[in-house]
Amino acid sequence: MQLIIITGANRGLGYALLKQLTLRLKTPTKIIATSRDANQGKTAIDSVLEATQAKRSKDTTLEHCLLDITDKGSITNFVSHIKTTYGPDCVNVLVNNAGFLSSDEDSTGSITEKTINTNYFGTSNLTTELSSLFANNSRVIFLSSTLCKAVKVPDEFQLSYYYNNYTTKEAIDINQLEIIEEAKKGLIQNTFPSPAYLSSKGALVALAKVLAEKFKAGPKCILFVSCCPGWVRTDMGGPSAPLSIEVGIKTPYYLVTDDFDHLYQYNGKLFTNCTVNNL
Description:
Blueprint: E1 2-6, H1 12-24, E2 29-35, H2 38-52, E3 60-66, H3 72-86, E4 91-96, H4 110-130, E5 134-143, H5 147-150, H6 159-165, H7 169-184, H8 195-215, E6 222-228, H9 245-248, H10 250-257, H11 260-264, E7 270-272, E8 275-277
Parallel strand pairs: 1-2, 1-4, 2-3, 4-5, 5-6, 6-7
Antiparallel strand pairs: 7-8
Helix pairs in contact: 1-2, 3-4, 4-7, 4-8, 6-8, 7-8
């Protein structure tokens, strides 16, 4: 049985990916859908099970787990539950989907801090804590964003800037902390698109590259990739976004299900439209 974890699976892209995988996977699979709210998470699972009842494989089962990736205690409890319930080397796929975006005024830097703590530090901490449970030929997928390419923003918020200039996790951490401090001093405004959002998503692109390099000499083969689903009509993306949610999940779904050996030659890369993005 393969074990797939999707964070933030109660709505938006996470929910749509959960539904698509439940509907289409045919090999024995347990999908763990996480959310910060128990009622929302259980409602999402019930909705998916009802919608896929006629067509899903009997070997595909779902479980909801509480997880707040901004809370280290919540991460510890979640990882402990996974290890106790499913044993060592049990995680085959981790989809780091949970995220935060707000265009509200940020005079104190609190929104910038929440954005970066959720999108980058929370995601990074969860991945680190789960890493000892990754199976051989497992995959870790970070949902990023190429929104910065669609609008005019400074070079330091471009994905290529992060991918080419940050080669250690420590350097990425420092960069993200510096942006929080600049926002608290009023030096970064929370305009649209949010610089904090763009930088945190750029940091994930760099993190995928860094982790791919770090783990390649280890005893397990682990794929680390980032992907951009595009600007999608979700609660986060807004009603004016040009892409449907069905289009948005194509690349994440591809990275979860495509042949591992084929994808592994692109370890550490960013994907858009199911192809490698050369930044």
